[in-house]
Amino acid sequence: MDNERIEELYYEEGKKEEAFRLIVSTYKESLYWHIRRILISHDDTDDVLQNTFIKVWKGLDEFRRNSKLSTWIYRIAVNESLNFLSEKRRKVYGNTQSLNVILEDTLESDEYFDGKKLEIVLQKAILKLSERQRLVFNMKYFEEMKYEDIADILGVAVGTLKATYHNAVDKIEKYVKINYDII
Amino acid sequence: MEKFENDNNPFKVPEGYFESLDEKIMKRVTGKPEKQRIKLSNILMPYAGLAAIFIMAFLLVQVIGNNFADESRMLQNPEFVKATTTATFEVDAGKVSLDNNFNPSSEDICEYLSTEITNYDLLFAELY
Predict the structure, then answer these.
(1) What is the CATH number of domain A1-97?
(2) Which of A19, B12, B15, B109 is 20 to 30 A (C-alpha) from B82?
(3) How large is the ipTM?
(4) Rounded to an integer, what distance in angstroms lies between the CA atom of residue A72 and that of residue A84?
(5) Lowest-confidence region among A52-66, A160-174, B64-78
């Protein structure tokens, strides 16, 4: 089911709910993994994913076809995730800890993380990146998105994205080289 | 960047998470409860229970009512009243009788006792 079909269904009389069901079934898994790589914790991801879909449902009437449906949904998910992280940092840690430390703690305590040696090192390397670098790296490396789509979602120029991604890769490779044998 | 070898997804989800996610989200979004299959037997069960209670109560009333009716009918019958009221005990100066027709002689009693009581020593011990 492509996005155009979902949109057509949405504009049909009395088909809004059916269209939304299709959105949920189409995007739930990819959106989950997208949010999970930002938030690390399953429980946090579950909350944010549901909130994202609620925002999609409420915003469907305002959604105009000047951007792709998938881009619009991913943009909501990214905003919800980043807002959640800054709220968590403020409420739970009183802004005393950096996000990297918070997420590293979360990684180690999450019961639904089961990584081998290399996977743990890789995840820790990703958590050392800046927020922008992390987002770009996850979308490009794990989700294999096109630069153009990432640029639409994050509202950044493609050239900037490419530079950000390459910087992120450099940092990760250096971290893994140093830490893979130590751990 | 080349993909790392063996970089499987280390993040896991609880079993059945994605299967139940659609309904969970739809429930939150539309406020409609999850669709459930309702069995006919589940609907009829309370009514069947009530019907059984009424039937039991009806049968109980029928049985008790019939008993009262029979008793009152029998009490109105003089033959029945006579037959049930003649069996009375009379104890008077050593004479025991169950009813008017039963009046054993001394010999009958002695004979009865000689057949029934075999432990004479015990009997005499009781008497003396």
Answers:
(1) 1.10.1740.10
(2) B109
(3) 0.78
(4) 18
(5) B64-78
